[in-house]
Amino acid sequence: MEALADATAGAIGGLFTTTILYPLDTCKSKYQAELKAGNSYKYRSLLDVLREAIASKRVLALYQGLGAKNLQSLLSQFIYFYSYSYLKRLYLQRSKNKSMGLGANLVVAAAAGACNSIVTQPLDTASSRMQTSGFGKSKGLWATLSANWNESFDGLGASLFLTCNPAIQYTVFEQLKTRLLQQRVRKAGSSPLVLSAFHAFLLGAISKTVATLITYPAIRCKVMIQSGDKKDDEEYSRPKRMVDAFTLIQKQEGILGFYKGIQAQVLKTILSAAFLMMIKEKVSRATWVFMLAFQRWNSSRRRSFLLQGSKA
């Protein structure tokens, strides 16, 4: 039940977070996917992407691919948090320890991330291509999947590599959370059940910033691999592997190109992780209450059914 409660809370938090921040995510992804052509960029900043949407009267196109992204986010968060909670409980049972150290946390979080990436990769690729297509030119989810089914797992290598991102983020969050709650216990003499919304937001922002700064070059390569179709005015073809993406960036933009869009990525990931952790912490308690109430109702119903059967 603990794993199911964590998974449900994580999925709900991911759904709300993705929807709230989706326009920012679209601008960020289109900006990251563009490679320097000659001596100029089409997009000099995120505002250029927004201006293009407004000028073409396709502001709502900033939400293209939202349904696919929400589906992918819902499944992704559920699978990740369920896998993490399950593997954490399994580790504690096998090791007979009361808590996990930093190393064990990293391994468990990475394993949960790998499970999530393998299962949701086709949806991740399709939603990214819908999002980075030209404004108003995005196909539906099924059309995108069926048209490029042989490319559905493009970027899987990058996704597996990036499992260290949520691993680092979740580990840093859990370690900071444990220390904060321990300080409260020493001061107040009792242990609070959950973090306050402010502290959950703050710890989520700090932990995700650390993970993003470390893994950003791979994040940009993944966006390029999964971007929409090649435009007519582009001088390069979409890379298929991380090595190809690294080579293109190095050739066209140099070392600094690996961190193009880092500000937008940090802003988006900080807000995303902070909202996710804040919502998850609050929804988790409500989920537990609901599940316990349902379990009691189901038990009482079963007892009533058995009593009726014995009387008959």
UniProtKB/TrEMBL annotation:
Subcellular location: Peroxisome membrane
Keywords from the named record: Membrane, Peroxisome, Repeat, Transmembrane, Transmembrane helix, Transport
Stretches forming Solcar repeats: 1-90, 195-286
Gene Ontology MF: a single term: ATP transmembrane transporter activity
GO CC, one annotated term: peroxisomal membrane
Keyword match Aminoacyl-tRNA synthetase: no
PROSITE patterns for the chain: SOLCAR (PS50920)
GO biological process, one term: peroxisome organization
InterPro entries found in the cross-reference section: MCP_dom_sf (IPR023395), MCP_transmembrane (IPR018108), Peroxisomal_Ade_carrier (IPR045900)
Membrane topology, from the record: Multi-pass membrane protein
Keyword Repeat: yes
Family: Belongs to the mitochondrial carrier (TC 2.A.29) family.
Name the record gives this protein: Peroxisomal adenine nucleotide carrier 1
Organism: Selaginella moellendorffii
